[in-house]
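User: Can you write out an input/output pair for a complex, sequences first and structure second?

Assistant: Here is one pair. Inputs:
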Amino acid sequence: MSEEKKQIEQIRQSFQTAFAGFVHLHKEIKDLTLADAESYQRELAELKTKHTGKKSELANSKKLIGRVAPEERGAFGSFVQSIEREITTAIEEAETNLKNFIADAKIERERLDVTLPGTQPREGHLHLLTILRQKIEDIFVSMGYSIEDDREIETDYYNFDALNIPEGHPARESQDTFYTTNGFALRSQTSTVQIRAMERRGVPIRIIAPGRVFRRDTPDLTHTPMFHQIEGLCVDKNITMAHLKGTVGEWLRRLFGKETRIRLRPSYFPFTEPSAEFDFSCFKCGGTGTFESERCRPCKGSGWIELGGSGMVHPNVLRACNVDPQVYSGFAFGFGLERMCLLMYSLDDIRLMFENDVRFLEQFR
Amino acid sequence: MNISYNWLKDLVKIDLSPQELATKLTSVGLAVEGIHEAGDDFVFDIDITSNRGDCLSHLGVSREIAAITNAQLRIADYDSQKPANDRNLVSIQDADLCNRFTARVIHNVKITHSPEWLVKRLEAVGERSINNVADITNYVMHELGQPMHSFDLNKLSENRIVVRRARTGETIKTLDEVERKLDETMLAICDAKKPVAVAGVMGGFDSAISDETTHVLLEVAYFDRANIRQTSRNFKLSTEASHHFERGVDIENLIRASNRATELICELAGGTAGEFVDVYPTKFTPNEIESEDIQFAVKRLTGLEVESNEILRIFAALGITFAIRTPKTTTFTTPSWRHDLAIEEDLVEEVARIVGYDKIGEELPSAFGAGEYQPTESRKKSLRRTLVNLGFNEAISYSFIDTRHDERFDLIPSFVVENLDEKYVSLEDSIIEGATRMRPSLLSGLLDAVRTNLNHQRRDLKLFEIGKVFSASEKENDLPNERELFALVLTGNETLQNKAMPLREFDFYDAKGALEAAASAMNLPALDFHPKDVSHLRRGQSAEISLGGKAVGTIGRLNDEISAAYKFRQPVFVTEVDLETLLEAKEKTILYQPLPVYPSIVRDVSLLVKRDVSFADVQRTIAEQKFELCRKIEFVDVYEGAGVADDQRSITIRLEYRSDERTLLEEEVETIHGQILKVLETNLNAKQRF
Ligand SMILES: [Zn+2]
């Protein structure tokens, strides 16, 4: 029997010799490259076939059991099994360790830098003026106003006469108006739309007219010969300046927040009587004139932002549109969009609006 | 307009601090833009609207203060001497332009420097001291609002004044030492022989007072407002005098002003007052405004409830008087210094501004109905949104351009009337650089934008613009044509947000694809593209775009000549279309198609064709055969180069076969596919490559 046992013992010896190079894999695997680990894995698989496969010495050794005396076969069998278990356990442990190590290493190797930029298509930007115009249009449409626009080149009648600016009036003779060579005016205010809309729709009417207007100003930090205006008009029975103040207040509150206050100041426009400039409490400092203990920039420290002109529609304008000023009254207001952008975004040069420099355009959304 | 606080206090009692006064003045419409200290004085910078000529003086501002604070004005009458009507000294020949003229002779004056108090007063309001007489006329203008002019009497031929229209050919050297040509539209103050002053604008150099002057003729007059404005415009010469006269001075204030100045001259220049002439051909008639119920009118327009006593107090303070002439109406008479009050609404404003606009409440008009966007706005919104999502930035360019763009671009079809002498809309006498014509195309603006951005090292650009273009109308007296267009430009590479490495270079098909996406965003039927030579586009890379058979625009690569003019060193692709016509097109109707039940069989085929055979030709040729089972013809790829002759290209297409009734058999498909290939070969000489 000891002969057979000795043979088994030899198998065990030869395994242990062959396995010596793998023993360290039983512990935590460190400092191993993925390539080395994979070559260990291959070698280990060979070793496994050689020492535990069907043609292995260990498999052959099971045939020895026939030679053992019957009464010792039980003990011998257990012995062989224990050796077999010892060998397979050693291999499997190393295998598992290697497998886990390789899996971890592969995950490590495919670990991403999640801070790299995403694959995002380049997005464009609407022009600042479009963004603001759409916001304001949305507010007024929700308040029951209709959006109107019309011609940009007009007759003197629509640009002046119908707006109570008769020939000889200072506003008309001013050098501000561009004329075409055949005597038409580039509209100098979008009030022209009020007239055309009242002619078309009659009264009562509530409209907002956003559009381009032109004045002969040489471009500088605060002037461009073309800019955009938004004008509002509301004509109905029993309309008063209180409605003007309420309406201007309402849309500015919807744009700048509910604490916004409105101020009207007497002024002069040919197409309104009484006339008023409208100011609103500064959106930045809330009307205090001070922001972060410095003089507030948008309102220049006054707490008020002067936005535009307004008033009760002049009876001559109503009459020009066949509206009886004894029956109807109305208010109108207007302001420049560029100026508003300048204030809202603290821009220092209005000319940027029309240069189409994408470094400028891409700042707004 | 500079107004001195101390000076005002001479004219009206003021219990308010400069700050408080500034707030009050602003609230009644005299916008105080700034206050600055000047020694023991404060000076207000007041922005006076063009209708309030009466406020261009300390007297005018004092009146407003009196109305606000209910104080009394303190102004003397200065009626030291009553004038005569001596037609030998002064004659008015054109009374339509000169409603009143007073002349005062002051003898034995000594022209010297002014006393310190006078110099200080003038300095406070921003005026430089010249000499005592000139300073006094200036002083009285600032105090009473009446410009005046002093002549050296001895330098006036025959020592007399004639007020008449200038004659063509007459000239005058004005005080600013400019020789000016006069004409019949201008009013001149003349002596017996020649003009000695441009009425209401500037005096003559030769008749002006000098250190040697001993006898002064002081002119205090009223001139037609529009005429002064016109003369001042013609000469591009705006003076303090013309500024006052244009806005209207107080015609009934002339004697007072003349006496005030005379008193001061006698006092400070040692003269003695002599002849005083007042020629006043047509007496001033004040405006009369009828009102049935001014209290109601105030409430109707402003919502303010003002007691009638308070209304009458305000009117009295402002010099507006009233009379009840019929039981139903009150007649209000406006003062001679207020040229801006003509109708009841004007009176309402007077009440409202003195009561205070801050007393007006805030109300919203009662509900009316739903608001509406412009009918085209929703489609334009999705057009804009789609292009922005595709990476285009929206440009807005000036509507005017200069002449260097003339004939540069092929314009939108049937927009410009070609046989006109002047087919563009040009601006008259434009002083603004680059503003000569109204743009007939959006491309000039977009290409300028490309240039600007290239200058800033931004080489990958996608821009679009929506805006109006202009052309002359066929009939000269008609308003010019205006049309809204849409244009886009791209150049450089497709790039990703936040990644420096570009994906690929843009080509023609990027421009086309963006335009198609835009059309699809507006739910338009498919646009057609036909090869066409377009003058601003490179030959062979240009097309005309049409919708439903109507040409609507062009697309392609900018030609080398224009590219060189802009110094573009990379291909630029542009398209411009008639947005108005696109927006008129009916939206595509969508009909549900039942989902396929049976599988389809797909065949790819590469066809070798001559370069003049287009993909559209292939599509059309197959479609014409009306093979019921051939359901779809898709473009896969095009190949040119090695293995393909120079005059040929290989187009790969994908054909999809499907039946709605059954699963197709391979053999069936082979038969039809073979027939299709045969037709392509017969009609287009297209050979199957593989
Ligand atoms: Zn502020």
